[in-house]
Specification:
This protein has two helices and 39 strands. By secondary structure, the protein is mainly β. Strand 5 and strand 6 form a beta hairpin. This is Right handed beta helix domain-containing protein.
Length: 479
């Protein structure tokens, strides 16, 4: 019996040893979750986001990879991390039976080159076999900005600009940005303006302001850029992506696309009686908080589209003066629920037991659309006033979404309102962010001719004065 037990133990041990033996057959191959790791538009001199893939051992025995290495070795622009080990070459990597490991990859493009394609391969040496996963990155040279104070200068479309840490247009200086220029922002970076900003985009070549993550996943993702800081009480204060500081004046933006920030534009305390900002023919989209956040400021806007802002499309707080004509607010937020109004008006601030009241000299919306899928108690406009200060506002010839309880009876504030049309504004496609009007839109020809004549060309340079009446919003329907 003792002999039988010994034989049985030896047999089991032999089987166990066989199961634990490394697989050494040259026919045993690894499998990979991808054959190519691709980086889409990596800025020169700035490391990429990290990509990853999996390496599988589909066999019933462990397998040992003699070496995982970059084909270009030490001259490679890529870096790899193999199962927790970072090096250009990692030796003796074992994958257990029916198991897998991760390989992480990043790339840094040489800033001394022009636009290039950077290629390499990650080689896997196993039992005399060589397998590879290819890597490819598309590099783009940029003008890199890291905290500079900017004097008067002009940016053009020759190379994109990357604001890696926040920059300031200094007092009495002017930054001019010409048509077709692309300005990318890293996370927690803003462009602060103490002097003046002039944006000269065109219909065919708008100026682009957006985050520096260019992968497809990030195209419509809000909150990618804009400076923020933590206050002493632990709260987070968020600055505008384009932030106009007190004292800034004579700012003009024409044909810009501003997207993916925390706040698109913020304006603080106006100086003098002129507008702090005149913005025309521009799109502000996919903001985590507000599209335009103006406090005690002066803003004029024409032919604007503001869409998919997580809090307000336009917030006018602590008084000021505001005039908007032919604006399309299409505030749909599929990535979050929103219980705030797209348009907010306010003229006071309370800190502890102390209140501060400011005059709202004027806030007008004409020939405009104010619509969305949220709102404060179903209202896409909110009126928040202190009676001690002036509070002058006026909506005329507008399509507005409000609740049944919202009072629009005062003609000093509301005239010729398309209130909650059953069909909504009937945009061509809110899913594709096409906020032109379809053929059955109630906003067609619903505007006032006087306001149309003040802004005779729509955002696409179509004449809105030649038919029965101007359409509401930024776009004139073309038959």
């Amino acid at each position: 019996m003792r002999y039988l037990i010994l034989l049985t133990s030896l047999f089991i041990g032999f089987i166990s040893c066989q199961e634990d033996d490394l697989l050494t057959s040259s026919s045993a191959k690894l499998e990979f979750s991808t054959d190519t790791v691709m980086f889409d538009t990596v800025f020169t001199g700035i490391g990429s986001a990290t990509q990853r893939f999996k390496v599988y051992n589909r066999h019933s025995q462990p397998i040992r990879i003699s070496s995982v290495e970059l084909a270009k070795g030490n001259s490679s622009q890529y870096g790899i991390n193999v199962d927790g080990v970072s090096a250009n070459q990692v030796k003796d990597v074992q994958i257990e039976a029916n198991d897998s490991i991760y390989v992480f990859v990043e790339v840094n493009i040489d800033p001394s080159t022009d636009d290039i394609i950077e290629k390499d391969s990650i080689l896997f040496y196993t039992n005399g076999n060589i397998q590879d996963v290819k890597t490819i990155a598309f590099g783009q040279n940029v003008n890199l900005l890291m905290g500079q104070s900017l004097n008067t200068q002009t940016w053009d479309a020759t190379r994109p600009y990357l604001v890696y840490t926040s920059c300031l247009v200094d007092s009495l200086e002017t930054l001019t940005i010409e048509a077709g220029t692309k300005v990318y922002f890293h996370e927690n970076a803003s462009l602060f303006v103490l002097g003046s900003l002039i944006v000269n985009g065109t219909l065919d070549e708008p100026v682009l302001f957006k985050g520096d993550r260019l992968e497809e996943f990030y195209q419509d993702k809000p909150g990618q850029w804009g400076a923020y800081t933590t206050l002493e009480n632990g709260a987070t204060y968020v600055f505008g992506g384009l932030h106009f500081l007190p004292g800034s004046f004579d700012n003009k933006i024409d044909y810009a696309i501003i997207k993916n920030a925390n706040k698109g534009i913020q304006l603080d305390s106006a100086v003098g009686n002129n507008y702090t900002l005149e913005i025309t023919n521009s799109i502000i989209s996919h903001m985590n908080l507000a599209g335009i956040y103006a406090q005690t400021s002066r803003v004029k806007g024409e032919n604007l589209v503001l869409n998919n802002c997580g809090s307000h499309a336009i917030a006018m707080v602590l008084g000021g003066k505001y005039n908007f004509n032919h604006v399309s607010i299409a505030n749909f937020t599929p990535y979050s629920s929103r219980n705030t109004a797209s348009v907010a008006l306010n003229n006071y601030f309370v800190s502890g037991d102390v209140g501060f009241v400011y005059d709202l000299e004027e806030a007008t919306f004409t020939n405009s659309i104010i619509y969305g899928d949220g709102g404060e108690n179903g209202n896409e406009i909110v009126i928040d006033k202190a009676d001690e200060g002036a509070f002058n506002y006026y909506f005329d010839h507008c399509l507005i979404k409000v609740s049944e309880d919202f009072d629009m009876s005062n003609e000093n504030h509301f005239q010729n309102i398309l209130r909650n049309p059953e069909s909504g504004p009937r945009f061509v496609s809110k899913e594709e962010y096409d906020f032109r009007l379809d053929t059955l839109s109630p906003a067609i020809d619903a505007g006032k001719a006087e306001y149309g004549a003040a802004t005779p060309l729509d955002m696409n340079q179509n004449d809105r004065t030649t038919d029965a009446g101007p359409d509401l919003g930024a776009y004139e329907r073309q038959q």
